[in-house]
Amino acid sequence: MSERARTYEVRTYGCQMNVHDSERLSGLLEGAGYVRAAEDATPDVVVFNTCAVRENADNRLYGNLGHLRPVKRSRPGMQIAVGGCLAQKDRGEIVRRAPWVDVVFGTHNIGSLPVLLERARVHDEAQVEIAESLEAFPSTLPTRRESPYAAWVAISVGCNNTCTFCIVPSLRGKERDRRPGEVLAEVEALVGEGVLEVTLLGQNVNAYGVEFGDRGAFGKLLRSCGEISGLERVRFTSPHPRDFTDDVIDAMASTPNVMHQLHMPLQSGSSAVLRAMRRSYRQDRFLGIVERVRAAMPDAAISTDIIVGFPGETEADFEETLHVVREARFAQAFTFQYSKRPGTPAAEMDGQVPKEVVQERYERLVALQEEISWEENRKQEGRRLEVLVAEGEGRKDDATARMSGRAPDNRLVHFAPPADAEVRPGDMVTVEVTYGAPHYLVADGPVLDVRRTRAGDAWELRQGRTAPAPGVLLGMPTIGAPASSPRGAVGA
Ligand code: SF4
Questions:
Q1: pLDDT band at residue 225 under the 50/70/90 scheme
Q2: How many angstroms does the Cα of residue 240 sit away from the middle of ligand 1?
Q3: Fewer beta carbons below 10 Å: N end or C end of the chain?
Q4: Nearest to 378 by CA among 331, 417, 335
Q5: For residue 142, what is the domain's CATH number?
Q6: Whole-structure pTM value
Q7: How far is CA 178 from its chain centroid?
Q8: How many angstroms separate the alpha carbon of residue 304 from the centre of ligand 1?
Q9: Whole domain around residue 267: which residue ranges?
């Protein structure tokens, strides 16, 4: 009688880089014979892919590990593995604080997970493996992609910058660039599988090429993506304003499948604060890029990350941030209250801003940005948009429920499903925007066009469906979301 396959679950925290790494962890485990655990079942292996940049990340991890301890006791053979940035940072400390953990692996050791699990099982002893630098680019590892229609493609890992609030460089190491031919081969293979949209991923995509000596490499890569037949949407995250060249703006504007969407972290509008953050651009440079992007692509949606209350930030500095927000008219901003991150230079700086001051500034910033986001979304009313339908959690029994997807500029669009046509995640629909809400667009009228795609077929295949089903009803889509926290591993 054959042995039952061991089951696994990967729990992911943090940024898109981690989400993508988790796809690789799943791919590796499946390659080694594990199968994904059913949602309500206790897995044989639980993998934590951790993030070190969020507040209280370690408390949360040790809390979660504590919850699993009795579960593990009652389930002989169960294993727990901890990877990601917190593992890279805490290393052996994890098995000292939680001796029931079986494996600790670093950000450069993803490929070792199955072997480490096996070794821990055979020797009945915790395995800790943390490499200091990357030996092989993780793209060579197998991947279990979450979506059949949209995919992340890593072009670089690590970062050569030293922003004082960010722990990423010490945990992810120096920038390593993947060769363009390898990136394009992966994109082509994905398109061959039905993927319509790729997001090129790196801590600082504009620095791409620094390792192999071609500063124009990112613009060239975008243009080459434009030549891949069947690839409908190309996005990228995150660019650093310091390295942003006009060539990239030209490439975005002149390559039809590169979407007119830009997530460019501002962090602060004050040049003095930017200096303290060791961000080597100033307010005028940031606004200059925004102006040139708008001149080349008037329909571009620009989003950003902003930190409020960085040490030393005065009211006048904060007003500078509000000024940039008013000028740039971001479609969306991810706003964060500064809080100390152990291990970062900013945590030791004088001039920490009192919590209530940070809170008050934060509220003013959010109110201003909400107003702008809403005004910008209302400008979309009456526009016809092609929407890539996304998968979600919607009720399948309610025929009036809305479906959702992403517009070319990545705005979230809710639309009423057509009564006479099947629409699947991965298909394209054309709709007319009837209402712009603060955080999404609504198209309540009839769907003007449905384009069935290979991505939709691939989605259907994954569901194990043989016959067409009525409209699939959706909640929040997960594709193509803009970059995460400024202190996340992605978000230059
Ligand atoms: S914030 Fe971005 S650019 Fe700055 S060090 Fe961190 S990853 Fe690098």
A1: very high
A2: 8
A3: N
A4: 331
A5: 3.80.30.20
A6: 0.82
A7: 19
A8: 14
A9: 138-378
